[in-house]
Amino acid sequence: MVLTPRTREDGFQGHSVTLGSNPRSASLISSSKGDTIAHLTDVVSLEQPESDGRATIFSDKAGMVKAARMLLSSVTKVLVLADRIVIKQIIASRNKVLTTLEQLEKVSSFQEFVQIFSQFGNEMVEFAHLTGDRQNDLKDEKKKARMAAARAVLEKCTMMLLTASKTCLRHPDCDSARINKDGVFQRMRLALEQVIEIVTEARPSGEGDILPVSIYMGIREYKQFMGIRECKVRGSIAAPQQHMGIRECKVRGSIAAPQQFMGIRECKNQLEGLREGLCLLSKESLTALLEVILEHTEDFTDSAYTSHEHRERILGLSRQARLELEQLIAVWMQAQNPKAAEATEEMELAILKTCQCMNELKKELHNAAAELTADLLKYHADHIVLKALKVSGGEGSLEALAKYTCELSEQKEQLVETCRLLRHISGTEPLEITCIHAEDTFQVIGPQIISAAQTLALHPSSKIAKENLDVFCEAWESQLNDMSILLREIIDLFEGRRGEKRTYLSLPRPGKLSANLKTIKPVKLDSEEQTAIAKVGLELRLLTSDLDSESEKWEDQEHEIARQGQGMSSMAYSMYLFTRGEGLLKTTQDLFHQAEVFAEEGFKLFSSLQAFSAQLGDDEKAIFTAETEKLEALCQQLQITARMPVQGKNSTFLKVDSSIQNTKSILTVVVYILPLCNKLIKKYKCEQSSLGSPQSWRETPLQTPVHEDGLSGKNGNGFGVKSLEHHMANLTFLESK
């Protein structure tokens, strides 16, 4: 069976014709051939004599082989068809998202925006689930990294799109608000297109997937260039095509720019091959490859952020590398004599010295980039510039804003250049892709923060403009945190601790309850589990945003119900950060402890709501009580889950997933209750005011609720799209900001 390769999205539809477009028929064929094999290999049939005429595996070997081949063919067809169906689902989901995105971009009223964004939120959650499953199924690590980068952009841009669009609708004549919004829409479209390129294996403009490679790759190629073997024919010097290490590339016109570390590794591999014998090789090609490597060390030496000591050592090692290569070529040319039986000791020494020089260059480049990145991250850890931008924007000080805008632009350039240097020392293509993603993120978000700050400075009393600036600053801070994780992974790879997954420790806290428990080993979540956790985390993040928006609409921000809602939002946000490997919750035990505290806070909110419901009329009280009872049941379920002891990887992951799912369900109920509660407070205030005897709607003293351990709560739905519906269902807060 010949499979036509998938190349582009527009040609994808036709490939299903080659295989047959009916998965049911392929499944029936697989089942039929499976039954045939089962019949031929049936144990009862084998025990009976062959004289009765029954076919067995011994009497019908040809039939067995044919059935096995047909089974393999039909199963392959089923798998390919299933793969095509999944890809078509992703393409269809992307098309729906794009259509709704275009509608969102053209809205001119809050009411229209509310309606369309609710639909958009549902479609984005569906797209996130489909692409998350696809990312987990990918075998190519480079594609996995690209998919992860694109999905990260979509996750962050979903929140940016909400606040940027609201700001633009609130201030339609503000150019900076429009620029800010347009940037988000453009970035989302590019990320959606990248996802489709990955799943359909398409290439933009028909070109190959050209990835800027690092110096590390160049050095490896340089070594492989020397990977010469014993040849039967000697006497001439020519470069076999298979040993040509210089790749043609359209990036710079002719010779590709090797990633610094990759180039060093290639170079060393080639050099090591000299020990095994002589071969036909061009010294000009080897010299050219070294020059390409050294040319790209200029990214380090020309950088204003590279220290003087590192710059001098890199330049010195570059000069030494040229001298060592000249010496090696001279010895090599002498060894090309047809009478030479093997490489001389002089040749061996020259190879060792050249490889040692490349190792030292590699180490120096790594130290220069790693130290620069660590210092830069430490310097910007307090986010002083971002805080100053928020203050100057809130005060409407354009002069101060201009000053801090320049400082942020300078910080952005530092981070972008640092990401480029990290790319050179990344060592693997997935890490290199992550470096490129970080570089692009800083390049894009920097100007967007500035435009958001300018909008706030022009409208300092606008709550939505302030919220918009906060969202973009949060994305900047998150990317800085991702960059520190990236640096740690690069250092681990360089020091030989490669491929280690993030570890979630499930260790009991010290105390009397843990005295009799065995020591629990660290539990590692595999890629599928991490993807699943990330999906739920995105839904949790959307819910916390909804809850924050609802809390801000309360006139009395010190009202106990509002404060408790804000506290629960903060706790849930820390749990969301855990799903991204960020924040203060470092281990699963930290997460479970946070979940238990979250449940206790939910019980406190339940008590406040019970006291509040006592002042309601019968009809309103019935509706209100039904929702508060859901809250109590869900909090009890979360408390039981958080306190349940577990051991082992699978049990720990299930508990993590269940804790976050329960938290999400609780937030969904709270997001529904808070606006209802706020509405009733306003209603009764108006009624009491009109009667001339205002009644205080401040909270009454809390009562401790009695919980039944046996009460079990309901699980939330799988997608958490209710949060967006609740968020969009209330329009008044948009108009009030």
Automatic annotation (TrEMBL):
It comes from the Eukaryota. Residues 691-703 have a biased composition (Polar residues). PANTHER family: ALPHA-CATULIN (PTHR46342). Coiled coil: none annotated. It is found in: Cytoplasm. InterPro entries: Alpha-catenin/vinculin-like_sf, CTNNAL1, Vinculin/catenin. Belongs to the vinculin/alpha-catenin family. GO terms for cellular component: cytoplasm. Its main location: cytoplasm. The keyword Cytoplasm applies. GO terms for biological process: cell adhesion; Rho protein signal transduction. Residues 691-717 are annotated as: Disordered. Keywords: Cytoplasm. This is Alpha-catulin. One of its GO terms (molecular function) is actin filament binding. It holds the Pfam family Vinculin.
